[in-house]
Amino acid sequence: MILELDCGNSFIKWRVISNPEARVVAGGVVGSDEELLQVLSSSPGVELSRCRLVSVRSDEETQQLTGKLQRAFSIDSVCAESAQEMAGVRNGYDEFQRLGLDRWLAVLGAYHLSGRACLVLDLGTAVTSDFVTAEGSHLGGFICPGMPLMRNQLRTHTRRIRYGDDAAERALQKMMPGRSTVEAVERGCLLMLQGFVQTQVEQAEEWLGGAYELYLTGGDAFMVKDAFPQAKVLPDLVFVGLAIACPLS
């Protein structure tokens, strides 16, 4: 079985797939290396043979994690790396190494699945967009704050804005003008998020033409999917690209 990891700064998304069927047998999200080791050790029927991962952590932190996996499960790990060209996609950054690995893998995955022009939107702590032509040329993209960053900035820099996550969730059950601070903030941030996505879709019509696929990924993709019924929502899009960048037999 192959362990796949998407290592962010705050969380690690993981899943275990069978080999060679590539069937997902387990998965989840954890907040630390130790929690990952614990959940893998306690997962029944999971016998790991290899690991592939993408990491936005420092090299030292990534090496610490792979070392822990080696000691705990006797498995080697291969890390995804940036490339100027791969699987028919040409990296559009002037310095290709500076394109975030999670963005690069999502682009690889989307183009592999669609085989044509595509717009990839990753809605997480930050929101990113990437445009890829039918010929596989990555045009670049945009980055803006996601819902967590927007609300946290308002909470941090505005003294009178204080509310919890439960109140935030309740506030988003309707989209009428807010009649309380939490409603006004949460609904306002969501409208900004939806507006960004709408702008990207409009730009894709201009830059990619009408024949393109729209992919939504990331934890907050569900917040905008209803407004864009043409979109394909793929929470594991980065893992699709990871398998392309790090093939394991």
UniProtKB/TrEMBL annotation:
This is Type III pantothenate kinase. K(+) binds at residue 122. It catalyses: (R)-pantothenate + ATP = (R)-4'-phosphopantothenate + ADP + H(+). NCBIfam families: baf (TIGR00671), PRK13322.1-2 (NF009857), PRK13322.1-4 (NF009859). It is an enzyme of class 2 (transferase). The active site is at residue 102. Belongs to the type III pantothenate kinase family. It holds the Pfam family Pan_kinase. Catalyzes the phosphorylation of pantothenate (Pan), the first step in CoA biosynthesis. The gene is coaX. It comes from the Bacteria. InterPro entries: ATPase_NBD, Type_III_PanK.
